[in-house]
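Technical appendix A lists one of the benchmark inputs used to test multi-chain prediction within the project. The record comprises two sequence entries:
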Amino acid sequence: MSVNLSRRGFFALSGVAGTSLLVGCGPAAGTGAGSSTPVRGGRVRALFPGGGAKETLDPHTPPLFLDQARHKALYDKLTELGSDMRPVPRLAEKWESNADATIWRFTLRQARFHDGRALTPDDVLASLARILDPADPTRTAKNLLSALDLANSRAVGTTVVELATKVPAAELPALLSGTGNAIVPADFRDPAKAVGTGPFSLVSFDRGESMVGKRFEDFWGGAAHIDELHLLSASDESARGNALLGGEAEYAHDLSATFARTNEANPAIAVLAAQASVMQGFALRTDQAPFDNPDVRKAFMLLADRQRLVDVALSGQGQVGNDLFGKGFEYFAGDIPQRGRDVAEAKNLLLKAGAENLEVTLHTADLAAGMVNAAALFAEQLREAGVKVTVDNRAKETYFTDILTGSGIWSYRAGAAPIPQNLALRMVSDAKQNVTGWRDPAFDETFVKAQSTVDDAARGALYHRMQQTLHDRGGMLVWGYSDWLVGTSARLRGAKAAQPNTEDWARYDKVWLA
Amino acid sequence: MARGYVLQRGLVALVQLVLLAVLVFLLTEALPGDAAYVRFGEQTTLDQVAALRTQLELDLPAPQRFLDWFGDVLTGDLGTSLVNGAPVTEALARAFPVTLLLSVVTLAVVVPLAVVLGVAAGLREGSRLDRGLTAVTLTLQSIPDFVLALLLVALFAVRLRWLPATAIGADAASLLARPELLVLPVAVLLAKTTGVLSRQVRAGVVDAARSEYVAQARRLGVPDRAVVLRHILPNALVPAVQELARVGDGLLGGVLVVEAVFALPGVATEIVEAVQARDVPVVQSFVLLLGALALLVNLAVDLTAHRLVPRAEVLR
């Protein structure tokens, strides 16, 4: 892959996964997008895939990336994630827990809401209560915070909030960084009257079209450089690319590898590539035939030609996977040897399982660039071992709910998140998105034990053990990790390549116009 | 006779609209999933889907949901979106002006343009001009909308920077304030419609010019100008006016692509999003309104044709 990168003139800013690459040779790329002195003033127009009627100002409902960017401009969370998915302080300056991680104390920083009031522990408790409100099924962060025990949580003085949990929750600081966790004022009622602590205050919001925010001078992190932020909806990828090329926007979210390649020599724009942002895989249902047999699962994993999948389906804009989520993230089991392709061994395993004439259905949908291509290519790779594969191209709207009750193999992808969160959400027996149907009591026990292990290293060892199990016997075939591509005008400085869901993603308080 | 005709057509239109409402409901029911099922995207969990389904009353039987909605429509209440709880009228008020503006501007240009081109070509049948026009309009018409749109954007917006590439962030008011936003979208729609219409005019002109009544007028010494304006044109326009109704319907197909490529927040965009979100009340209301519009346009076209040539068989 490094050959490809240098041939295409990519600039590697740093070497490890989870950091950034800059594509293109514009001034922004040449100067590293951050070397000149920030200039105050101007407006930045940022384009995101829109959500039409789904778009919302409510910072606690299902998050489109556009809504997340909006909420990040207007609000803050207690914590955010660094590029390695470790929680970093935002409104919470620091935190500590008791010995079994059931009582947590978060110290709040001095921050002001847009209406001038100071942030208090009561605002935090009220925000969490709104998120956990059982009457509203659309509050997404509920799933992350199910361990919280609000009845026993309380304010301690004017700067500390004490959160109790029903079960040990060693990952609570990271869980509080998840989307849909914005802190709102205690008397927050009407999302249309957005009042937050974020770097921009609301000027206007037109659903499906635009949101305008203006610089909040009292922002706790230091006032933004730009005067105005326009977050605009543009669902068509070519419309976003063309508007950027036509000088009608300074930032375009979620561009294709094709766009990056076509414009690599264009001095007017730069493409920021956040490496290994999205896990690309196939979910094998381990609770149903034929994948209830570990040999069949292993055979399928040995049949994937990962490099070819990356080259073809991701247009080379990514790296190969080792059947594990979260390459480069905290706790990642990077020492487990990379699995390669071995058709002969795969055939042996299928023979041993009595599955030499296996027929399977591979479900997929056109959810992201390359997903359907990856499925078609993997089907070919499976056929080389005599497996009869039918590819089932499904409706994309229903796809992620279909998986939850499905059978066979499913194209799957997952955005950047902490490894423990992935385990909780997708891998433990009662996980809400247990797409591989993986149920293993010993595995669950290890996870529970990790949640009461406050020592990072000791907890990391437990997570490592779980990843080893998944690599040996699990049902998630992770063939690659794709980069996340954002285009910026050459005038825009200070923007960093960052995976969605992380602190540096969509940070308009740090950018300026040259 | 025209009044009786209008009444009769109005009654038929009402029945058609009810059938349309039922059909659209059945089609959206036939789509896999419902508004709760598709709401959460990649974050979806089965218990959230179930809770939302109850909240939105999607677990009621389909006929009951249809009748509830239809009963409200009869009282003038189009209901609320299943996605954001906002009144459907809000979405209608946002999207319709954009698409209407686009269509009206396109029609205002395409009608005179097609008549001039069609007459010019038809009066000189077989000439270089005639063949040239046919070649150009056929070529433009056979390029797929999105290809033409992207080519125009690449040339006029990205390379020359004469015109904006998209209308991102715009609504109907800003489109009026900045007409340059409409130039490329309208150009794409014109490319699709001018050819069909001008060829229809041309064929009508050719037919009329060869007719016995025109030959007779010429024999009587009626001046050329008057022959064209009084005898050829009205007869040539009847099929073209009827074609115009089909062009109007066809515009919607073109508008879909044009709205997507230029990020125009119009009817097509809204319907596509509502279908994807299984937002049945929104889909229903939009389709119903579009159906009503199509029926009105067809009626207006028939009456116009009847005025041009007051013959009974013109009224379909």
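Chain B has twelve helices and no strands. Chain B touches chain A through 52 residues (CB under 8 Å). Comparable benchmark entries are summarised in Table A2.
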